[in-house]
Amino acid sequence: MLREDLADLNAFLTVAEEQSFTRAATRLGTSQSTLSHTIRRLETRLGVRLLTRTTRNVAPTEAGDRLLGTLRPALDSIGDELDQLTELRDKAAGTIRITASEHAVLTVLWPALAPLLPRYPDVHVELSLDSGFTDIVHDKFDAGVRLGESLAKDMIAVRIGPDLRMAVVGSPGYFAKNTPPVVPGDLAAHRCINLRFQSSGGLYVWDLSKDGREVRVRVEGQLTFNNTTMIIRAAAAGFGLGYVTEDQVQAQLATGELVRVLEDWCPPFAGYHLYYPSRRQPTAAFSLVVEALRQQARSE
């Protein structure tokens, strides 16, 4: 394969993933005109049209889809092999990119990484805080953290945290003016504080269950945040009911700053799992991080 073929194929893959010449050019660090010329050159060389261009987006043709099916795993394999070269160094090295919620970072990831990183100065970790569901392959992350084990079949899941429980909480002042809810349906009469996912923009639905009965409640209220810290603060200030993990409000519940309701509708569920593609060949640096998280989970 000629060197220019590999560069052109990478350009095609980037345009197909971004579905936009503008975004792809930004990602590749080149101009839109140069990128368009590269794709035209590749199509001319192959003798087939690879992309369909409209005023709104760019999509692969049938020939483009066929090429993508071969190209993605091939380039990923090359990337994995290049990553393995870091294992030839005396010490583990490289950058590990992980996407996780703020809660997962504070309670699971950071406690494991803080004592690990000083021992391996050539290992760099980038933590991207996001409460939504991130496509780690598309967004070039090495791994992600998600609750439970409901993951795609091509992902490996490693449990890294204990079981969790959710809690519906409000301030004593709020309940002095509002009758506490007894069943999920009562939430319709209450001001609730919403959580908006940063990535998808959607609102978090409150999942409640009891004796095998599951209820998904879309709540309404005056306030919406994309951060649970502010939800807790607003609930404590009397602005409505918040729905957060139990461990985040233990201190406020102990002091009486917050009061818990619907506790019997909040059973335990599987905690945080680290997930990454099964086809990935872990680097020495990545293996160190995974093992540190595993050891911490065993000690809890």
From TrEMBL:
The keyword Lipid metabolism does not apply. GO terms for biological process: DNA-templated transcription. The keyword Kinase does not apply. Pfam families: HTH_1 (PF00126), LysR_substrate (PF03466). Residues 4-61 form the HTH lysR-type domain. Keywords: DNA-binding, Transcription, Transcription regulation. It comes from the Bacteria. InterPro entries: LysR-type_TF_proteobact-type, LysR_HTH_N, LysR_subst-bd, WH-like_DNA-bd_sf, WH_DNA-bd_sf. GO terms for molecular function: DNA-binding transcription factor activity; sequence-specific DNA binding. SUPFAM superfamilies: Periplasmic binding protein-like II, Winged helix' DNA-binding domain. PANTHER family: HTH-TYPE TRANSCRIPTIONAL REGULATOR, HTH-TYPE TRANSCRIPTIONAL REGULATOR PGRR. Belongs to the LysR transcriptional regulatory family. This is LysR family transcriptional regulator. It comes from Acidisoma silvae.
